[in-house]
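Progress narrative, work stream C.
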Amino acid sequence: MKSFIRYSKYSDFPIENLPYGVFSTATDTTPRIGVAIGDYILNLFEVAHLFDGPYLKEKNHVFKESSLNSFMALRPPEWKEAREYIQKLLSENDPTLKDNKELIERC
């Protein structure tokens, strides 16, 4: 599996290992949920509307919260769907995020 996001082959956060966390930035201190990919964080708030699988289509609001509590309260099939969809979005073969410069800027 290859990501369109470039990172070192020694990175702790390749596309196969996308740890969830809560982050903020110097310009926006609002806590948001994201996943690490290489030296970057994918802001899941900005891509939550893209989740369209059978479990998360109706529950994508969990990525618009300021903590991981609601997401962690979901079940393993929902976690699996989230992981697989995030990997798909970050894949070099999927244009949804890769070819959308405006969305990438927000993410």
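Work stream C, second folded protein:
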Amino acid sequence: MDKAKEFRGKFFFLFITTLIFILFITVKTPRAFWSIPKPHGPLKTCPLQISEHTITPLNNTSHLLVSAYMDQRVKGFDIRIIGIFRRDSIQPLHCLFCCAGQLSRTTPTTILQHSDNFGFPFTTTDVMCQIPQNCSATHVTLLTQPDRRGVFDQTWLPIRNQKTNEKEERKLQFNFTVCVSSLFGDYNNVLQFAQSLEMYRLLGVNRVVIYNTTCGPELDRLLQSYSQEGFVEVVPWPIDQHLKPSRGWLFSQSGGDIHYFGQLVTLNECIYRSMERSRYVLLNDIDEIIMPYQHNNLMSLMNMLQQQQPNTGVFLIENHVFPKKHFEPSGRFHLPQWNGVPGVNILEHINKEDPDRNIYHPHKLIVQPRMVEQTSVHEVLKNFGQRYKVPLEVCRIIHVRAALRGSLALEQLHEDKRLWDFSDKLIPNVDKQLRRAGLLSSEQPS
């Protein structure tokens, strides 16, 4: 019995000692003791979290990511990530790809800040990187460290403009896309909005892309109607949820984090969004109509310009302001069915200012998107090929807005009724869209 007790005592002592040792090791190094060993080779774990937003914060930085595109036009790079970066906190970044469900090794990036920032702290930025060999990349993310630390917390961006077959000829879905940089401040100029869109449709535009921060209730109904029809693509643009956007173009005058609600970012994003599906892209505001004066549609205009300027990918169109304070005196187009529709009736404004040639005069752009790398508002920053200023007698912008040269009297303005050439088709088309959106009573005559 004594030996049995002695054995049990030794066993109990050994058990207690072992238990204390295990607890000591566990408390001191819990991660090492309990963690699962990392498997060797690629991890079949991506992408865990795909961004469903148009603006995505980048972990451990002050920066925001917008979208990622395949872009092999610049030697040494495959991917261009469009972002909004804080200029004073640029740091090395590393691309990580999801290769058909497997994580790649990281690759270094080249960060290209756009030269136009107008003094604001945040600016449009391109992050360029290369896809590793033997990687069929579908998604990409950015890391602040090259060793894939924190990868499970990352949000992934889908890579757009993927080519299914390099030898297959690129099939363009559209001839013309209009990019409208941003709606904000509860913008509700419904009538001018509908007139501009229907005017573009008559000129041969196939798609209008609009970046929407906020708009008024009536315009929201019109946007939904156009979206359902497929003519308008509305891209949510909640820039005000991430930064303090400026309502002006110059930081020293307006303050804020970023120029004009991120206008430069959206214009660049729209070019890449349209690159593999549209032959031409028009970069202008919704109250501006790029109007041919020697042709009845944009395709005829561009066919002539491309024949005359075969190596040109950027066409600059001169802006002409039609002050909305001056009305056509006969009232011919003051139509009763539009009285209850908020906004400006562009058919009533036929007097235009001559540009002041002594100061900088802005243009807007028609571009071949594959020949543009970076753009600003009134000119491209980087492009392939030539640029050409289109003569104003061939094409110019009809811009109905507040007077730019307010000191000019009505007698100093010049009459321009070009819009009236399209009125027979434009008016019923506008009525149809307003009625479809529930903004025009079915009893009201067209």
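Residues 24-43 have pLDDT under 50 and may be disordered. No further action is required on this item.
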